[in-house]
Amino acid sequence: MSISSNVSRLLRKQVRPIELPKRWTHSVAVIGAPLSKGQKKRGVEHGPAAIRNAGLFERLSKIGCSVYDVGDLKFSHVPNDALYNNTVKHPRTVGLACQVVADAVSTAIGTGHTCITLGGDHSLALGSISGHAQQCPDLCVIWVDAHADINTPLTSKSGSLHGQPVSFLLRELQDKVPPIPGFSWTKPCLSRADIVYIGLRDLDPAEQFILKKYNITYYSMRHIDCIGINKVMERTTDLLLGRRQRPIHLSFDIDAFDPMLAPATGTPVMGGLTYREGLYITEEIHNTGMLSAMDLVEVNPLLGATSDEVKATASLAVDVITSCMGRTREGDHIIVDELPTPCNIYESNGEEQVRI
Ligand SMILES: [Mn+2]
């Protein structure tokens, strides 16, 4: 049975909303992508379970989403997966896993769902964005992250593929990306003007060079400090959607948040987004009405110092996702038709009237 038909079958397994509020409902497919070979630390493969256990489905149902649980994708470890160029680790395993992710995301979006992919490490975005682009070739990407993840296999110092997915996606970089084993299926689907970064604060020298040379728009933490998150979002949506409405792919790395808020992650960097800035980003993205797919990646439950730190990180991930799907800080927008009127006790109760 092909991966597509497997996914289609799984998509029919609907998780019923707890209650159906009177409002327009999102139909969302949730795909677990327990991918960890794009980086070195153990535990990020447990990210999808941690986010599910933090109440994701209940919270989505509560705001009126119909949730289709695709379950966790199965990735196989390719034996004898030798380093590429003495640096890049597990290329065949990660390449194959991204292909599985691409197929699942493409099927979910093709079936009419908004697609949520739970990581897993950030290399999976190569798969999720490629799969999304198969259905929506004119998509744009908002990449919220402490890192740009735009090293090429030739500039990466760590050799970890979670720091490289964007280089495979950009057309402008194709003459700089070698044909590495496991990635022959990939096809660049973005141009430099189709992506905006938010939250950057830890760039490698080659990444800085790429961002400048190809004139890729990014709002670092310094930009957020200078102009505020509201201006950042206004400019981001103007840039990406100003000329035409098109589907948005949000790739949200939990390490965009300050490590005080999201400690259970592999590459924390001080000075990140506040809770309010993070949710402002997701609320504005929801308000465009154009969010078509998102990734929530790099939650690593083995890296919290305490179980409270793990819980806080996973619950933050759930807040980000539900905010993208329409939860507002003012309250969930369930339509109330009328206020209850008290029955007039004074008309029916003579005694009370006398007392007044
Ligand atoms: Mn990342």
From TrEMBL:
Instruction: Reply yes or no: does the keyword Hydrolase apply.
Output: yes
Q: Which cofactor does it need?
A: Mn(2+)
UniProt keyword Metal-binding present: yes
Instruction: Enumerate the UniProt keywords alphabetically.
Output: Arginine metabolism, Hydrolase, Manganese, Metal-binding, Urea cycle
Q: What is its EC number?
A: 3.5.3.1
Concerning InterPro entries, the annotation shows: Arginase (IPR014033), Ureohydrolase (IPR006035), Ureohydrolase_dom_sf (IPR023696), Ureohydrolase_Mn_BS (IPR020855)
Recorded protein name is Arginase
Biological process GO terms, please?
Answer: arginine metabolic process; negative regulation of multicellular organismal process; urea cycle
Known pathway: Nitrogen metabolism; urea cycle; L-ornithine and urea from L-arginine: step 1/1
Catalysis performed (reactions): L-arginine + H2O = urea + L-ornithine
Q: Which family does it belong to?
A: Belongs to the arginase family.
Annotated NCBIfam families: rocF_arginase (TIGR01229)
Q: What does this protein do?
A: As well as its role in the urea cycle, may be involved in tissue remodeling.
Cellular component, GO, one term = mitochondrion
Q: Could you give the cofactor binding note from the entry?
A: Binds 2 manganese ions per subunit.
State a single Gene Ontology molecular function. arginase activity
Domain of life according to the entry: Eukaryota
User: Subunit structure, briefly?
Assistant: Homotrimer.
Pfam families xref list: Arginase (PF00491)
Q: Where does Mn(2+) bind?
A: H122, D145, H147, D149, D253, D255
